[in-house]
Give the backbone structure.
Amino acid sequence: MATPTAYHRHDHRQCVADALSTARQLCRQRGAKLTRIREQVLTEVWDSHQPLGAYAILERLAERGECHPAPPTVYRALDFLQELGLVHRIASLNAFIGCDDPSHPHQGHFLICRHCHTTVEVNTAPLHQAIAQCATQHGFAVEAECVEVVGCCPNCQQREAGDEH
Amino acid sequence: MATPTAYHRHDHRQCVADALSTARQLCRQRGAKLTRIREQVLTEVWDSHQPLGAYAILERLAERGECHPAPPTVYRALDFLQELGLVHRIASLNAFIGCDDPSHPHQGHFLICRHCHTTVEVNTAPLHQAIAQCATQHGFAVEAECVEVVGCCPNCQQREAGDEH
DNA sequence: GTCAACAATGCAATATTATAACATTTAAAT
DNA sequence: ATTTAAATGTTATAATATTGCATTGTTGAC
């Protein structure tokens, strides 16, 4: 029984709306302020549903005409959202993506499609355990995990298979 | 029985020399040319024994006075070395580090100390398996793995423990 | 050996990503 | 209302990486 992911068709507007609603709730709980610009940045991130660079966010905001922020404004909003776990930064892409489940702070592990850039956050216990075990063996105290697996998503595999004939 | 790693004292000159000799051999095998600049870049990377940014490499080369390369020269050398598996790029640091074992091409997994920046390449089967399993579950075909664990190395943990009194 | 072809490097300019420093505005608390 | 702290605006710049083209060096065919 598969859980729906970014690979599946879904009502994306609803998906963005849900993310925003979750974010508002989380900010209320934590006494953090989800200001206009922060909300707008989070919206762009979710709207793309793909890793989005800071300058891409900036451009999209400008295109919507609602604000014309300078880079520091966007980066500050992203910092805020990251601290709350609402977005993750993907180091290998210099990009940001919304987090499905910000309820408990965590580092995301990602499957990134080289072709369509669709990126899925996974959080499997065996992976955590394997990292923990490896760290322990080296006497290393883990503070943050960055796991970014690049490859080909199911949809693109199918597309490629279809192309060969 | 612990394998010696970057955490342990070792004869670093020998360590660099070994890396160079391995590189020469690998290039001979593959019919690739380890030119002067490529060898110099590889030497700097190994000499630091820590992740080193492209511009840091550039500066060090200039300091030695043997050449004053522009950025593209360094990046091209790094590209070459990466393709042969002689160095790995660490995305979360925008930096490069020598590979212990370039004999078979692979992606490194790293334990990166936040304090002293000592970085150890690990390559444990369970970690690979966990990633493979997770990818399979999502129908995702893995092409490259980027695993960068940030934390505190044994030496720095000891140092910190000593500081508390 | 000479020449053609290709690989590697030099070099200048510029793109992309990210931050520093300081001014201004907004919101909150007293 | 006034003070304070937080957030944002603004300008400049740092840090990382690439493009495009000229030049040099190496290799192999003849």
